[in-house]
Design a protein that fits this description.
Oligomer: single chain
Shape: flat
Strand order of the largest sheet: 1-2-4-3
Structural class: alpha+beta
Largest sheet: 4 strands, mixed
Number of strands: 6
Strand content: 15-25%
Distance between the termini: 60 Å
Helix content: 25-40%
Radius of gyration: 20 Å
Length: about 190
């Protein structure tokens, strides 16, 4: 009888651990451009492969880079059950590249969202920062996990916190492209 209780306890523990899984990814989608299309690697060829990868890996939250509005629309057609937050970097709406956050709507409730420009004036739309050739943005989502009642904190608010404290979970999905610029080396 003691063995049965231990087996039941192990099964319950395994179920509890598997319920905590969260798959987060960062993906540089690469913008839709005519040069890639001419070389045979255009968005029409890449979109189905990228979406298949997202579904196969069962990604819950995806931070993406270099994504234009038409690409977001195409991805949402392919990825059932996903929504996104984010804006175009050029006008704060639909123009220019996005850095969207995709998430599964069945699992997450969107509590807050936003975008800021990585510059001396983060609230001003389309501003280039420091030595950037183009405007750089950060889109964030404050999501509540409906399965585990965990709430992810927006990056902007995280930056203002001196200590995260117990019981808080933070996930950052980003493209940290520092190599050549900081160290003068090719990666």
């Amino acid at each position: 009888m003691k063995r049965v209780y231990i087996l039941v306890a192990l099964v319950v523990a395994t179920i509890s651990v598997s319920a905590q899984d969260l798959v987060v990814a960062s993906y540089n989608i690469r913008n839709d451009n005519s040069g890639d299309t001419k070389r045979g690697n255009g968005w029409a060829q890449r979109c189905p492969i990228i979406c298949d990868q997202i579904e196969w890996n069962d990604i819950d939250i995806l931070g993406a880079q270099e994504v234009k509005r038409n690409q977001i629309d195409d991805m949402l057609k392919e990825l059932e059950g996903y929504a996104f937050v984010g804006v175009g970097r050029d006008d704060g709406k639909d123009k220019g590249e996005f850095s969207p956050v995709f998430y599964k709507t069945e699992r997450f409730k969107l509590l807050d969202q936003g975008t800021f420009w990585i510059s001396e004036t983060p609230e001003k739309v389309g501003i280039k920062g420091w030595d950037a050739a183009l405007p750089r943005i950060c889109s964030y989502a404050h999501l509540q996990d409906k399965l585990n009642l965990i709430s992810a904190m927006p990056v902007r608010k995280l930056c203002r916190i001196s200590g995260i404290g117990p019981g808080k979970a933070v996930t950052i999905a980003a493209a940290f492209e520092l190599g050549r610029r900081c160290f003068g080396e090719s990666i």
